Every structure is written in C-alpha cells, then in structure tokens.
Amino acid sequence: MDAVNKHLPKSGDSIVVMVCQREHVFACGVAVARAFPTFTMKTRDVTERNVTVCFVTPGDASPLTGEDVKVLSAAATSIRLSADIVDRPRNEMTCDDLVNLAVKIGKELNVSIKVIRGEELREQGFGGIYGVGKAAETPPALVVLSHLPQGATKTIAWCGKGIMYDTGGFSMKTKTLMPGMKRDCGGAAGILGGFKAAVECGFSENLHAVLCIAENSVGPKATVPDDIHILYSGKSVEINNTDAEGRLVLGDGVAYARKDLQADIVLDMCTLTGAQGVTYWCTPRRAALQQRPMGDLRRVSGSN
Nearest to residue 244, comparing CAs of 138, 160, 173? Predict the structure, then answer.
C-alpha cells in the first residue's frame, strides 16, 4: 500500500480503484486506509484532500451491501485511529493523552468506562502496570471500556499493551534499538480501534477493551533488576530485565479480565517481544501467535 500513497498526486482529490476478488475486499480496503495516515507534523507541503476508494470485483460477485460498506467504513476509520496513536511521538502521545482519548471514545460510544490510575493501581494490587510505569512523568493507568448489550450470552475481553515509550528502563535499549519505541503502544491502539469498530457495527456480545497503559522510563522511582512485584493475579515476579515489561502490564490486564470481568474469552494484543522474534524466526512481516489447543478454542467459540 506504500506504492498507492507514493504514486498518487500530493494535492487535489484522488480515486483509488481496487480490482480484487469479493472475499478480498475487506483486506484491501483496510490496507488502503492504513496507507493514508492522519498524523503529520510537517510544516510545509501539507494539504487536505479527499481519496475515494472504488472496488471492482470481477466475475459474478455480488455487489457490496449497505452493511458491507458500514463495516468497511468503521474498520477503515478505526485503523486510522490506531495508526494515529502509534505514529505520534512520545511528546505528542503520553499516558495521559491515551487515557483521555480512550475516555472520549467511550463517551461517544455510550459504553461503561473505568479508569484506575497512578497510586490507585498500587493500592488495588496492580503491581505489574504500576511497577513498569511509576517512574514516568505521566502516571500509568488501566482503562476498561465495556460494551454490554442486552441478550448477550458471552463475555469477551481484549487486552492491549500500551507502553507509550519503551526505553527499556534500567536494562536500557541501545541508541539503535530505542528509536521507534513510540510504537510499543500498538497493542492498546489496535484494541481501542477494534473495540470502536465492533461497537459501531452492533457487536451482540459483551465486549471489554482493557488498556494497560504505562511508560517504561528511568528515574528515582523506577523498577530495577532484583525488585519483586506482586501482580493482580497474586503471583510474585522477580525482575531480572526491566526491558521485559510487556508481560507485566498484560499480566495485570489478563488477570483483571478473568477475575473481575469474568471473561469467557481473553485475547491480548501486543507489539512483538524481541525474544519471540528469535524463538519463532519472525520477520517484520510476520506475527507470533500463542493460543490454547485448537480443540479448546472450538469449545469456547462454539465453532467446528
């Protein structure tokens, strides 16, 4: 999709024509959406424009329905929202900024909102999120958005890793590995965007977005190797690498989803840890997936 953006005129309205199979329309549509980010801090050559996307499906494919267009539009808008979050530098997207954005979206969607922040995390036993983010200028937070429609029979929780910047803490990243760590909030950004799209499209089951937000910074209050934290699950964790912070914040989020939200299905989303890249030979265009045995997944989802 970079080719789409690069070859379009830089000013004026444009039309993108996608020729694809009917079953590929959704994937192509959201790819085009990601090709046009909303965030920029350029001080010149910045103009607003309209980009119209047309789909041509060869053969006897049925035309897109109104519901299809609604889903595509919601997904495209939400993908650009998620992209906007990860594209912004740390001085433009802090813990406070993401918390405020999540609360704003929750109010727009008319869903339940819960925010546990700063010292409240420590007091309520969220040792993972608090331990990772306590040294940052803006306090860590757990934000829970809850969509609870009538007639729901299942409860699903999506947990997102929202590390707004990852220096590595006292186990500090090098000068070549640290740039780009503004994107370590990609899990929470994706969950927030996906939740927004699902609710707008009338998702019929209970759905919770659990955002584990912190900045992994260095300071007088920062966690150091050999510290021991008590997570929300009640388990104690000895820290030997402060750059392994994602599992700590998600540990609290997943435990909250099971203990407090009573979720039947818990999914967590996070940017890939370097160790997993080594283990699974992942490249920048691949993802690692850890899941329960397929039989268990089928029983949970009710599918064959």
Answer: 173
pLDDT surpasses 90 at 55: no
Residue positions counted in the chain: 304
Measured CA to CA, the distance from residue 235 to residue 243 in angstroms comes to 19
| Range in 124-133, 191-200, 295-304 with the lowest mean pLDDT | 295-304
CA dist., res. 124 & res. 138, Å (int): 19
Tokens encoding 90: 């740390």
Q: Beta 265-269 vs 228-230: how paired, if at all? A: unpaired
**What's the whole-model pTM score?**
0.88
Alpha-carbon distances of 156 from 70, 145, 146, 249, 266, rounded to whole Å:
23, 12, 10, 19, 6
- Condensed to tens digits (0 to 9), the pLDDT of residues 265-280 reads 999 999 876 666 666 5
* Tokens coding 6: 């690069």
Q: Give the position of tokens 């379009």.
A: 8
- pLDDT tens for 152-190 read 999 999 999 999 999 999 999 999 989 999 999 999 999
Residue 145, H or E segment: strand 141-147
**In angstroms, how far is the first alpha carbon of the chain from the final one?**
34
204: tokens are 């019929």
Q: How far apart are CA 206 and CA 146, in angstroms?
A: 7
Catalytic machinery residues:
173, 247
Cβ neighbors of 171 (< 8 A, separation 6 or more) are 225, 241, 242, 243, 244
Tokens of 84: 């906007």
Annotate 179-233 with DSSP letters as a single string.
TTGGGGGHHHHHHHHHHHHHHHTT--SEEEEEEEEEEE--STT---TT-EEE-TT
Q: Which amino acid is at 83?
A: A
Residue 301 has pLDDT above 60, yes or no: no
Q: Does the pLDDT of residue 304 top 60, yes or no?
A: no
What whole-number distance in Å separates Cα of residue 102 and Cα of residue 271? 19
